[in-house]
Every structure is written in structure tokens, then in C-alpha cells.
Input
Amino acid sequence: MSQQDHAHAADEPERNTMLPPPRRWLARLGPDERRWLTIAFVWCLILFTGMYVWLAIGEQQNPVESYRIDPVAFSTEVDAFIAEHKIEERDGAEIVAPPPGSDVYLQARQFQWRPVLQLERGETYRLLVSSTDVQHGLSLQPVNLNFQVLPGYLSVIEITPDETGEFPIVCNEFCGLGHHVMTGLVVVD
Ligand code: CUA
Output
């Protein structure tokens, strides 16, 4: 082995050894890295600001209020509400016509939204929603009323139906084997 080969091997100790790579992470960032980090940071600021702008002008927030509630107490209130205002029963579904302007209850449970609500167009109701077992997701289309329904929490939202028709409710949070058949209905006259 010549003198030159020895010198060459000493220059590149990492090639065939278990030595760690050079400590380059403390080196100054390259121009590309700086550019992309700047773009990412500015984009973060735009999205962060956008959250608040959209809250103000987007009209996409459901004005839902939440309160703690005992699921058993809620269940009792729903039963009383249905008993008081039920007008008929169709295929096992209770159809309830509450007086205009009143509080209306909607119970989420595996695997049903109960009862079917029959409301009047142009009247304002306070919708009281909760679950009596697991987490569900309320999705009322096409008005895009959409929020989580949790046991132990009462969600309250004011609604004023402005068109007549039948509006299906689906559950959009996986809640068990019957999740896909968990539907409900709001009828507006
Ligand atoms: Cu209830 Cu999915």
C-alpha cells in the first residue's frame, strides 16, 4: 500500500465505518430551506387569521349553546314531550307536532333520532338535542345544520324553518353496528 492510499483512507473515515454523519444540523440553513420555511410560516399566519375572518363573515358557525344534563333526566323530558304532543305513530316512529314557538326535543340513541318533528314554516323553535347513550353526529340536510351530540351535554339551537318539506336527519358519527340506519325526520308544513 502506498503512502497516498493511506492518506486517502484517512480523509474519508465515514465511508465504511459505523461513525455518525457530520454534525450538520447546527449549520446555517440553505437558501431553499429559508425560502420554504418563510412561505410555510406566512401561510400559517394567513390560515390562522382566516379562521377569525371566516367566523365573522362566513356565516358557517352554528350558534349552538351547550349545557350539562343528566342523560336519564333528558330521556324523561323527551318521553314527556312526546306523550304531550304526539299526533300519530307511523312504522314505529312517533310523530310530534309541538306548538309554534315552543321548545322541541330531539333524542339521539342507538340507532334512531326520536321523535319525528312536525314544525310550522316561519315559526321559531328552540331545538334541544342530546344523546342518551353514545356519541352521535347530527346532520340535517340541505340546510347543513351539523354538530356533535354527546351524552351528558344538551345542545340548544334556535331554528326557524323557512321552507316546507321533509328534511331527513342522518347520523354522521360512527356509533355502532346500526350507525348507517340511524335516520330521523323533520317535517315542515
Ligand atoms: Cu348515531 Cu352514528
Observations:
- Helices lie at 3-11, 31-57, 71-85.
